[in-house]
Amino acid sequence: MTVHALKKPNVANLRSKVSPEEWQARVDCAAAYRLIDLYGMSDLIANHISMRVPGEPDAFLINAYGLLYEEITASSLIKIDHEGNVLAQPDFGELKYGVNRAGFVIHSAIHMAKPDVNCIIHTHTWAGMAVSTMECGLLPNTQTSMRFAKISYHDFDGVVIDTAAREALAKDLGDNNALILRNHGLLTTGATIPEAFNAMHRLELSCKTQIAAMSCNTPLIKVPDDVVQETYMNFQPHVRRPFGVMDWPALLRKLDRIDPGFRD
C-alpha cells in the first residue's frame, strides 16, 4: 500500500464558497451519512445519500467514492448534475476521489423524475438485502412495517451502471417514498433529509423485525387487511406532521456530542 493511501483526507472548508442554503444542505447531508453509519446501516465506502442543491433543481450532492461514512463532512460532498458532470468538487489531493457510477445512475434517476424528492438514501444492510431476496417481500406484521404496507419493488437486472435503467427505477418507485431493490437493498426518499432518514431507519427496523420473527419457526399472527390499511393510512402525510421534524434536532445534538466534525 502506498504511503499517500494512508493519509487522512484533508478537505478545505467550502462554507464561504457556497450559498447559505447549499451549506445547510451539505451539513444535513453529512449528518445523514454519519447517522447511517452510527445506526449500523453503512457498507464501507459503498452506497449513497444524495441531496438536491437548494435553488439548483438539476444538481445534487453525493459522497466521494473512497470515504467511509464516518469521514464524510459538509465540504467533502461532490456536486454533480443529472448527467453526472461534476459541478463542484473539493481538492482531495493525491487521493483523487470521484463519484461512484451506480450511485450516480440510481440517484439521478429519481431526482430527474421526482422534482418533489430532494433526498434519497440507498443501503445494503444485511436485513434489507435478506428481505429483498424473499418472495413474500416485506410483511405488514408489525405496526412499524405497516407504514410500508404498499412499498414498491424493483426487480434485479444487474449492477445499475447504465443510464438506460433510470426510467424503470423511477417508474417502479411510483408515488411511494420507499423501494425494495430485489436481491439488492433498500431505498427511501423524502422532501427533506430528516424525512428520508426517518423512513430508512423505520424500514431497516421493519426488515430486522421480520427476519427475527421468521427465524423463530413459529406461526406468525396475520393482522386483518382492514386494520393494516387503517394503520397504513395513519402514517400518510395528510394525517400527521412530516416525519423527522421532531427527530432531527435531537439526532444532530447526538452527533455534536460524539463528533461535530461533520459540520466542517
Automatic annotation (TrEMBL):
It holds the Pfam family Aldolase_II. GO terms for molecular function: actin filament binding. InterPro entries: Aldolase-II_Adducin_sf, Aldolase_II/adducin_N, Aldolase_II/adducin_N_sf. It comes from the Bacteria. Residues 27-211 form the Class II aldolase/adducin N-terminal domain. GO terms for cellular component: cytoskeleton. Belongs to the aldolase class II family. NCBIfam families: PRK07044.1 (NF005451). This is Class II aldolase. It comes from Reyranella soli.
